[in-house]
Amino acid sequence: MTFAIEGWFAIDGDDVRLLGTRCTTCGTVCFPPRRGFCPNPACEGTELVEHRLPRRGRVWSYTNACYPPPAPYVAAEPYEPVTLAAVALDEVGIVVLGQVSGLTVDELAVGMELELTSGPLADGPLVWMWGRPS
Amino acid sequence: MSAQASVVVLGAGMHPWGKWGRPFLEYGLAAARAALRDADLSWPDVQYVVGADTIRNGYPGFVAGAAYAQALGWSGARVASCYAACASGAQAVDIARTRILAGLCDVALVVGADSTPKGFFRPVGGDRPDDPDWQRFRLLGATNPAYFALYARRRMSLHGTTPADFAAVKVKNALAGSLNPMARYREPVTAERVLSSPMVADPLRLMDICATSDGAAAVVLASESYARRRGVTRPVRLAAVSTVTPTFPHTTLDLPNFATDSSAAVPPPELPFRASIAHAAYEEAGLGPRDLSLAEVYDLSTALELDWMEDIGLCPPGEAEKLLRAGETALGGRVPVNPSGGLASFGEAIPAQAIAQLCELTTQLRGRAGPRQVPRARTGLAVNQGLFGHGSAVITTV
Ligand SMILES: [Zn+2]
C-alpha cells in the first residue's frame, strides 16, 4: 500500500483512522499531526503524542468539484466529480475535510453520520476518505 | 481619535478590473498616478510608499513596494511591502497609516495590483509536500470554491437559504456593478441566468463565484494637518483599520486547512473570526453597525455576502436573507452592501482588492459615486478575509 501522505492516517484491516496529536499538558487535539509546540496560546506544552481520532462523525457540510481540480491534483479520466465532506468529530472538537467515497452530493445531508475509510487517488496512492458507516 | 491625530484619504485611484493580460506593474502605475492626481500631488511629494504584494495563492511573488517605486521613478522615498493574502491591501494601508500617526511622515502612497492566470487559483508550481496549500490540491482536489461551497451548504442547512437567495445577491451586485466604470462585469443579470449557469461546486454555480481578475487600486494617505494645509476641508478619515488574527480555537474550516482547531480543551471564542475582524474595527472607531451608511464585504461567493452581513452586525444570524429580499442592502436601501458591485462585478485582484474597497468608501463618502451614490453617506465599512488567517476591516468617516 502506498499512502498519498505518510503519518496522517493508518489502515489496520477494515479499521481506518486519522492520526492526530494530543498535547499532554492541556489535551488539545490536532489534525494534521503536529510537532513542536501546542497551538493553544495559553499552553506551554511541547509533548504532543499520537492520538487516533474517532472514526465516525457527522457531516458539517459537503460539496463537490464539478470540474477537474488543477494540478497537483491528478484527475481521473473520464472525470467523475469529486465529492468532499467536512465531518465534525465531536469527541475531539474538530472538523476534518476529506473526499467522500461512494456517495454523491445528492446522497449527503448536513448532520448525517459518516465513517472513515480510504480509497485511491486517480494515480494510485491511498488517501483517507469519508464513507457510509459499515 | 482627535482630528489632529487622524489619517485621511487624500486621493484614490484605480485601474479598471478586467482580464487584460499585461504586467501588474502597468496597472499599479496607472492606479498610483490616478490617486496622486486625485490628491493633487506629484510622486516626489510622497514620503513613503507601501506595496501590497502580488501573489500566487499564498506566496509573495514580487517585491511590490520597490517595484512600484522604480516604475514611478526612484525618488528616495521610504518603502515597505507586505503580504497578507486578501488583506494585503488593508495591511499596507495600516502600515502607512501607522507611520503617519507616529509622526514619521505626512504623506504616503499605497498601491496594490495583480495579473491573474486563467481558471482556478492553484498553488505555486513544483512539489511541496509539506505545504498545506499544495497538499489540499494534491490530496483532496480542494479548490477555493470548494471551501466557499462548504460555507454555502452549511448556511442552507442552518438557515434555510435557497439558491434563489444566492442568485438575488448576484442580481443586486451586478446591477450596482453595471453603474461602476471600474468594474469588470458591467451587465445586469437575471436570477434565471444565475440559476442556469453551470454548477461548479455544489450548491454554487459559476455566477455565484467571483472570478480572478487583473486590476489595481491605490490611495494617498496623509495626516489631517497636511490635508488641511493643502486646503482639504472635509476629508475622508480612516477611523479604524483592523487586521486581527483568529483567536484559538479557530473553529471554522478555513482555506487552505484540512481541519479546524480543536475545541476539546479550550471553548471557542465568543466571536468567530470574521465577526471578530469587524468587531475590532468598530471598537477602534467607537462606532457600531447602526452607524453604517454602506458596507463593502468580501463576496467571494454570493452566499458569503449573506454570512458577512451577519458577521458585521447588520442583522442577527439567519436574517440576512430577510434584509436582502426587502431590498435593504441594494442601492436605494437602508444600508447598501457592495454598492461598488463587489467581487461579483470585479472579480478578485487579490493585493488590490482591499484598497479598491477603500477607494469605493472614499468615493461614496465624498459624494462622487454618480448613479450608484449612497445618499448622505457618512460612515463606511469594508471587510475581507483570505487565506492563512488573514483578514481586515476598514472604517471611514466624514
Ligand atoms: Zn497544550
Automatic annotation (TrEMBL), chain A:
Coiled coil: none annotated. Residues 51-116 form the ChsH2 C-terminal OB-fold domain. This is Benzoylsuccinyl-CoA thiolase. InterPro entries: ChsH2_C, ChsH2_Znr, NA-bd_OB-fold, Thioester_dehydratase-like. It holds the Pfam family OB_ChsH2_C. Residues 17-48 form the ChsH2 rubredoxin-like zinc ribbon domain.
TrEMBL record, chain B:
InterPro entries: Ketoacyl_synth_N, Thiolase, Thiolase-like, Thiolase_C_2. Residues 278-394 form the Thiolase C-terminal domain. The keyword Transferase applies. Pfam families: ketoacyl-synt (PF00109), Thiolase_C_1 (PF22691). NCBIfam families: PRK06059.1 (NF004715). SUPFAM superfamilies: Thiolase-like. Residues 63-115 form the Beta-ketoacyl synthase-like N-terminal domain. Keywords: Transferase. This is Acetyl-CoA acetyltransferase. One of its GO terms (molecular function) is acyltransferase activity, transferring groups other than amino-acyl groups. It comes from Nonomuraea jiangxiensis.
